[in-house]
């Protein structure tokens, strides 16, 4: 009888430990800092940005776009071209910053809001043709620039939800299966059309998406800490199980500004085990500010939780 009771106690302890371990495993890693770079051609370099050795640091090159690079840009059905500042952010500079800092990875973002002054649309001719072209052209760019991952940031659509989900889902599936990339992020914001497309993608392929770079700075300027925390909780529900990052825009023109409580909100989310990291738009704007908010973000993330 005593032996039976001992077995029951041991099984109970084992169950408790298993639950605790599972809870710990699903809590997001919160020492990740990411920043978009190169979209505004402000001559910013990787080496300009202070890098804290105690965080995981991702540069995200903005952008690669499946449009022609001519002044009258037009869609190319998945044949991507580079649209970031390659004079300052070329292949040799990528290799150099990664060799100097073992905690740095470099990704590229696909799409964006605009191209050569007009809106940038997701415009596939068909799922199979777009995926084939995208896999081929992006693999070449990724290998040429020694990149580690991609970010999906289409914001305008000439395709329905299912086509967007299948095109992007099959693209990331293939690139991961081919071991061309090691991580994927998406960058939605609070717009009905945008959200419906990204949630369709999340529903079918969320298990392949490593980070959610939600654009919290697209909310109204003057957002308060309590509003921000409510928005964060809402988006965690929309992208259930995802590693959700908090975000700010360097010039403070939208959302919860860094000087108005952003870091207070991040500290609270981190203490609750909800913060997947922080990302910023963008180094191009932060250069004039001396990267003070990048330093502050990384200092917060580097503190052991």
Word description of this protein:
- By secondary structure, this protein is of the alpha/beta class.
- It is built from nine helices and 13 strands.
- Helices cover 41% and strands 18% of the residues.
- Strands 1, 2, 3, 4, 8, 10, 11, 12 and 13 form a nine-stranded mixed beta sheet that branches. A two-stranded antiparallel ribbon has the order 5-6.
- The N and C termini lie far apart (44 Å).
- The model is unreliable at 5-13 and 15-26 (pLDDT under 50).
Keywords:
305 residues, alpha/beta, 9 helices, 13 strands, two-stranded antiparallel ribbon, globular, nine-stranded mixed beta sheet, 41% helix
Architecture blueprint of SSEs:
Blueprint: H1 2-26, E1 32-37, E2 56-65, E3 81-82, H2 91-100, E4 104-112, E5 114-115, E6 118-119, E7 121-122, H3 127-145, E8 149-154, E9 156-157, H4 161-177, E10 183-186, H5 192-205, E11 211-212, H6 225-238, E12 246-249, H7 262-271, E13 278-281, H8 283-286, H9 292-302
Parallel strand pairs: 1-2, 1-13, 2-4, 4-8, 7-9, 8-10, 10-11, 12-13
Antiparallel strand pairs: 2-3, 5-6
Helix pairs in contact: 3-4, 4-5, 6-7
